[in-house]
Amino acid sequence: MKKLFLFSFLILCLVHGAFAASCNHSFITDGYIKEADCENFGLRRLKCQICGEMKNEVIRALGHLWDSGTVTKNETCTENGIKTFKCTRCGKIKIEAIPSGHKWETKGGNYTALICSVCGSRKTGYGAKGPVGGYIFYDCDADNTSGNKDRLRSVECGWRYLEAAPEDLPETYAWGDDGSFGTKTGIGEGRNNTNIIVNNASNKRKDNAAMACVMYAGGGYSDWFLPSLDELNLMYENLKEKGVGNFHQDAWYWSGSENSNNNAWYQNFGNGRQNNNNRNNNNYVRPVRDFRLACELSLSFMIWEGSFV
């Protein structure tokens, strides 16, 4: 009798196994072994409605549902604020910092004399948004009382500030034609260099970096030019190095200064290295303009966007 029972049980198992193997399962939830919560996975038990086979299924963690948050400490010029959030599922609390920071303003149209409208702190620096949306990166009068290293005064040269366009030109360009044109490297030479390159452009290289700057009309102005080598370096030091200006990383930018009959100066905006490159090669271009407040601004007090560094 015992042997018959075991034999019958074995036959039953084989039949059930064969049936289960051929079953087109239709599983439904048959209970939960572990409920999922915001941070931890769950586990539920499934049962086939046809053959009764059982299996377990992992349930992913639900994730927090944070509310819109409440400011529990306001930020100041020098200390971060705090914003507190609560999960609507589990009640967990998290906090986020509200960045501190001065609200710098330019007073009297001076782009490098900065006053915080909140606490009254003062500082100087570059990186302000200029009158046509670019970034201010040089003031030729800044060293007038400390040796006048650049040998420039706005009352004599006709401009005071250099403003870089807010973005690179959308395409890369060749420098221009071969030859010795007399372009220079100094601060204040960019505009004249650009005119020289454009006037010497042949049909072969007419679509060059200098011409692209002349054709640029950022901010509704048409007085942009290709910076000289020293102007390009000021742009690198006073904008790119400070994280301002939306420059390409590790990219080479043309200056308007020639190096030889076939090469011109360019600069790497990843490490600041300057070198010469064949004029027929394409590189990035950032237009520049110069201006003096007496010609550009009629307001004695203006607040500009952007961060000063």
Give keywords.
disordered C terminus; 18% helix; 309 residues; four-stranded antiparallel sheet; alpha+beta; 6 helices
**What general form does the structure show?**
elongated
Strands in their spatial order, largest beta sheet: 9-8-7-16
Number of strands: 16
Could you name the ranges where pLDDT drops below 50 across 5 or more consecutive residues?
Answer: 294-309
β-strand amount: 25-35%
Number of helices: 6
What is the end-to-end distance?
Answer: 95 Å
Question: Radius of gyration, Cα only, in angstroms?
Answer: 34 Å
Main sheet, how many strands, which sense, barrel?
4 strands, antiparallel
Whole-number mean pLDDT: 85
Please bin the fraction of helical residues: 10-25%
By secondary-structure content and strand pairing, the structural class works out as: alpha+beta
The SSE string, one letter per element, is HEEEEEEEEEEHEHHHEEEEHE
Helix-strand layout with pairing:
Elements: H1 2-21, E1 27-34, E2 42-48, E3 54-59, E4 70-73, E5 81-86, E6 93-98, E7 104-107, E8 114-116, E9 122-123, E10 135-139, H2 154-157, E11 161-164, H3 190-199, H4 209-215, H5 229-238, E12 252-258, E13 263-268, E14 274-278, E15 288-291, H6 293-296, E16 301-302
Structure notes:
The structure is a single chain. This protein has 309 residues and is an alpha+beta fold. Among the domains are: 57-101, no CATH class; 126-294, no CATH class. It contains six helices and 16 strands. The strands form five sheets. Strands 9-8-7-16 form a four-stranded antiparallel sheet, with no helix packed on it. A three-stranded antiparallel sheet has the order 1-2-3, with no helix packed on it. Strand 4 and strand 5 form a beta hairpin. Helix 3 crosses helix 4. The model is unreliable at 294-309 (pLDDT under 50).
